[in-house]
Amino acid sequence: MVNSTGSKTGKQLRTLDGHSDSVVSVAFSPDSQLVVSGSDDNTIKLWDSNTGQQLRTMRGHSDWVQSVAFSPDGQLVASGSYDNTIMLWDTNTGQHLRTLKGHSSLVGAVAFSPDGHMIASGSYDKTVKLWNTKTGQQLRTLEGHSGIVRSVTFLPDSQTVASGSYDSTIKLWDTTTGLELRTIRGHSGPVRSVSFSPDSPMIASGSYDNTIKLWDTKTGQHLRTLGDHSSPVTFSPESQTIESNSLLSVENHWVTFASEKVLWLPFDYLPFSGSKAEGNTLALWYADGRVCVLEFRAPVA
Q1: CA-CA distance, 44 to 54, in Å (whole number)?
Q2: Can you give the residue ranges of the EML-like second beta-propeller domain (predicted)?
Q3: pTM of model > 0.70
Q4: Which domain holds residue 72?
């Protein structure tokens, strides 16, 4: 079940009902017209974000779907699963295009390069793999983490990929050579999420140590710590503002936006099991299969 909610009024806009188990990952298409969801029911579903209509269900994985991502042109979806594979899907038809095999344990993270030519996958086998989007060929394996890799993201030029690991580090890798560029240390807990800034040499990392840290990608220098949070993070595409799904405050049931209390969450909406921010839109997903989508807009004068 997916719920869409107005952020200022708290009014439920629509419910997207279809999954039969927990929704673990959601993503917006580049034009924000589509939402893709991955579930423990082993399926991927595609939804119209404006009408709430379920467009198609994509079946093929034999185990839980842990991560979903759109290609930069919105024509493809990648899904990573407990079945140790990545699958590619055509968003227009729902057709399964190919299966990427190579990991020896479950795939917990997938991401497309900004130029669309590569896919990165992070796995519980402690590696990152790079794949050719068009052919499905495995390009290289990036080894160095001592813990599971739960998040991957590309630098805007597609030449560098970052990985966040349960070994509490972030590693930067050269996508052409596969060489490790640097290891960034500073978190005291597993790193759950990493995100590059689209317009400056910064990377943000979110950790189970309840902090978000900002780093200089060129030097690895720690710039600042934002706390107290523990959820995935992303940068706004329009600015250098970092947007954290963990702007949600579980205390007193308030959702905050830009430090302002904007929405009181009823007991039915807490606790949530995961979250994803994209621009001014926030999605929360729950163990019972619900997804709540909130869009933040400036008030009209």
Answers
A1: 11
A2: 25-180
A3: yes
A4: 23-226
